[in-house]
Recover the amino acids of this structure.
């Protein structure tokens, strides 16, 4: 119990700190406007009481009209404050969601790539959308909601006591029954809502997975298998959804029954008091009319408490990410570096306690093409990932050396590394936006780059040219066209180090050869590192580095290695000698 209280306190402190910093002015405004609306509504039953009594006592028409007009005026003013109070309350709720989603997404972008390697993308998406939706709303409105409903409850109780203490005490009997039923059923609803949400996430993931693999499904003609699997997952969600719906309806009808029966009991008892002469007709009607206001803040406070409990595990998940150390993304701006070297010293890398790379030592400088050669699993891509900084070595260092200075990890130098992988991501933007991203480049420069990667003729043949939208993840392009757009995106930044990891694997061999020749011609003062399973791509590299089981076994050009390196000979013979 103490542990649960500590968790709530810890969570509430964080929420209060963020709320105070980002939403305080809006929260105060919401509380003030809603409080005015509550106070105006509290005046209404007293005027209604006098209005009915004046009619019953056959008062002059002037008094009846005066009180009646005052009631109309108060109703209009109250509705105006109520509208703005609710509007600002809902707006604050949306702003809270937006704030937390941006904060979490921005922080995720700063986390190291290794974090994403260990986690499912669907789970991360759920935290950004679902958890932030509820937690962000709670963060922005929980404090105003608590204060407003406490004020509302105090005003309602005060007004009912002033109207008639006896009727209020009778009413109190129904309140704990109402709260007890509401709290019990609400707990059940929360449980089934959580279960339903998890099942719905599985439905969403199933849809995403099937759409992503639609080509395979069609190719293997397993439409019925995919449909039956989807129906099975959907049925599990439907069963939880129906149970949740049952408890929601039970809660609504049972609490509504109490809300309907209590005023009727009050009318009966109030009628007896009128007959006895201890209460006037206006007082009973005013009490009866205002009584419904008692249940609303009581219900809201129970929901507030339940919402707080529900938010705690979400807060743990969201704050768990926000508290993770982000990468230092402060990039070093260095211009006009000509005499530099990329040095890799005594590099080891472990994956699941297995050495993937062992004692790698390299000195690489600008000018020429380096080809990384090796069988699948030799460690080529891992070495590239280490150079980029996606992952960190277990042992050893990677640094740039220039002007007697050392910069650990080249990724810290702005635009120093350009990377293009086999299946890099493209956005469903235009070709122009996919190439330029957040920069503005001249059309002359873009055209030059598109010619280098041999796709200019295709782009200009399109109806909208470079402004053509390419669809989700480049769905409107072939694999080869998409790879050339990715190459253009990387080359336009004019990086000092160009890393190509199977970057031309889907491009026709003839076009690929021309692209590599163009890159070598236009970027001859850069360091170009190429990984390709097609030896024809890197056969004419200035230098080849052969990896086997995570170790460098040979270095040299093709002519040297074909004579002296058995591993290279083996790889060459597999592709060229049948």
């Amino acid at each position: 119990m103490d542990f649960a209280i500590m968790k709530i306190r810890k969570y509430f402190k964080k929420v209060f700190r963020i709320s105070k910093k980002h939403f305080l002015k809006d929260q105060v405004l919401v509380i003030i406007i809603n409080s005015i609306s509550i106070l105006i509504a509290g005046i209404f039953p007293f005027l209604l009481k006098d209005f009915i009594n004046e009619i019953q006592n056959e008062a002059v028409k002037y008094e009846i009209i005066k009180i009646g007009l005052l009631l109309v005026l108060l109703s209009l003013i109250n509705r105006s404050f109520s509208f703005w109070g609710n509007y600002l309350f809902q707006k604050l709720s949306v702003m809270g969601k937006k704030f937390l989603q941006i904060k979490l997404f921005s922080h995720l972008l700063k986390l190291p790539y290794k974090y994403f390697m260990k986690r499912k993308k669907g789970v991360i998406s759920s935290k950004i959308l679902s958890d932030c939706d509820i937690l962000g709303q709670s963060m922005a409105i929980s404090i105003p909601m608590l204060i407003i409903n406490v004020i509302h409850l105090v005003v309602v109780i005060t007004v009912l006591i002033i109207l008639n203490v006896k009727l209020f005490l009778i009413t109190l009997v129904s309140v704990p029954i109402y709260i007890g039923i509401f709290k019990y059923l609400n707990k059940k609803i929360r449980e089934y809502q959580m279960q339903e949400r998890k099942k719905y996430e599985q439905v969403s993931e199933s849809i995403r997975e099937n759409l992503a693999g639609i080509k395979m499904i069609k190719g293997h003609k397993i439409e019925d298998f995919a449909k039956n699997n989807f129906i099975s997952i959907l049925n599990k969600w439907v069963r939880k959804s129906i149970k949740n719906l049952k408890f929601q309806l039970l809660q609504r009808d049972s609490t509504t029954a109490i809300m309907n029966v209590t005023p009727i009991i009050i009318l009966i008892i109030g009628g007896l008091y009128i007959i006895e002469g201890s209460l006037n007709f206006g007082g009973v009607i005013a009490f009866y009319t205002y009584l419904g206001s008692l249940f609303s803040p009581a219900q809201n406070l129970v929901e507030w408490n339940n919402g707080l409990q529900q938010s705690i595990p979400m807060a743990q998940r969201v704050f768990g990410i926000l508290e993770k150390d982000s990468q230092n993304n402060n990039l070093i701006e260095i211009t006009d570096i000509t005499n530099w070297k990329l040095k890799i010293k005594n590099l080891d890398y472990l994956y699941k306690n297995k050495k993937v790379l062992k004692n790698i030592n390299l000195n690489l400088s600008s000018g020429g093409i380096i080809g990384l050669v090796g069988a699948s699993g030799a460690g080529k891509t891992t070495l590239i990932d280490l150079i980029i900084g996606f992952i960190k070595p277990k042992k050893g260092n990677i640094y740039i050396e220039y002007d007697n200075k050392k910069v650990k990890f080249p990724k810290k130098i702005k635009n120093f590394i350009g990377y293009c992988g086999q299946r890099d991501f493209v956005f469903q933007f235009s070709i122009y936006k996919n190439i330029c991203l957040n920069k503005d480049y001249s059309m002359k420069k873009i055209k030059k780059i598109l010619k280098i990667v041999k796709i200019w003729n295709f782009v200009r043949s399109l109806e909208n040219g470079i402004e053509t939208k390419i669809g989700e993840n480049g769905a409107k392009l072939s694999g080869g066209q998409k790879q050339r757009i990715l190459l253009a995106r990387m080359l336009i930044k004019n990086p000092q180090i160009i890393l190509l990891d199977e970057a031309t694997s889907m491009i026709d061999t003839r076009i690929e050869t021309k692209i590599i020749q163009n890159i070598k011609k236009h970027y001859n003062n850069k360091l170009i590192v190429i990984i390709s399973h097609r030896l024809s791509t890197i056969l004419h590299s200035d230098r080849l580095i052969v990896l086997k089981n995570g170790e460098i076994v040979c270095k040299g050009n093709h002519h040297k290695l074909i004579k002296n390196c058995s591993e290279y000979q083996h790889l060459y013979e597999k592709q060229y000698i049948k």
About this structure: The CA atoms of residues 170 and 236 lie 46 Å apart. Residues 223-276 form the longest helix (54 residues). The chain has a mean pLDDT of 83.
